[in-house]
């Protein structure tokens, strides 16, 4: 069993990459991530312009973190020392860069390549700062931008995409046609984390990007769609908090994954736990490499036209004596779950097989069966 992967020509000891953001804002911060065991790091967004970060700029919500953090605090020239420092500790450094025109981003790309970056990630999809106008959402625009960067550098170019667009697949294809070596996604989701109703003010003073477990379903859907549409590697991002989440992205086509929010909330030691759990799962299932599982879940995805309407209904498979058992009868939208004394039963004439009870019951009481 081997956790190593070859991703866009980079030899990584495992598929875990720290994504661009607060955890990779300096060489010292990237060193800390490398020492925690990650396969690679993506720098905080490098731009021509330094824009001071507001305070406060992070707020934790129930399902993740909203941030209004912008670019790096270092100038473009200062990143030469930061990248060199991280690489001196063995880091594989992917430079996340932002420019507002093809010529500007190509200039930055060529410059950070000269600093020793091993690859590039085009950070063209951040949902705040310039707002949605800053998100490249038109395929021709993205094609031209990608093509110009690829033409100017000799290192691999990955394009980071956002779910804040109408058709992410068209953008992925445009980036591939422009010469991209890989696609990463998704970037954070445009958000307002909440409102302080006592003061009548939003928790942060502008729109931000939401990250964490709440956006994982969006990330999984995007990665599955992209993996089915293109022929270059994909890096999954969004709400990864465990080895299980890593495997979910890989089974939907990702070759590597990027993590940030869970490490911000749980500390760098959480990286070691994810890696250990990955090793144990791969060993238990007798897989020698991630290549054996990459994309295997895609075959289970069907269009609505391909799905047959079959007569499944729910039934009680385990007796339940938990205090919450009455709640099941209350929340069944078809009133098919009935309480009979101290027991639950399913009225299969009322049950439509929606499956909600199976997925929501913490005690594994229900199962779907073929209606006799």
UniProtKB/TrEMBL annotation:
Record's catalysed reaction(s): 5,6-dihydrothymine + NAD(+) = thymine + NADH + H(+); 5,6-dihydrouracil + NAD(+) = uracil + NADH + H(+); (S)-dihydroorotate + NAD(+) = orotate + NADH + H(+)
Gene3D superfamilies: 3.30.70.20, Aldolase class I
Domain 4Fe-4S ferredoxin-type stretches: 342-371
Gene Ontology, cellular component aspect: cytoplasm
GO molecular-function terms, A-Z: dihydroorotate dehydrogenase (NAD+) activity; dihydropyrimidine dehydrogenase (NAD+) activity; iron-sulfur cluster binding; metal ion binding; NADP binding; uracil binding
One Pfam short name: DHO_dh
Highest taxon, organism lineage: Bacteria
Enzyme class: oxidoreductase
Gene Ontology terms describing biological process: thymine catabolic process; uracil catabolic process
Family: Belongs to the dihydropyrimidine dehydrogenase family. Belongs to the dihydroorotate dehydrogenase family. Type 1 subfamily.
Protein name: Dihydroorotate dehydrogenase B (NAD(+)), catalytic subunit
Source organism: Irregularibacter muris
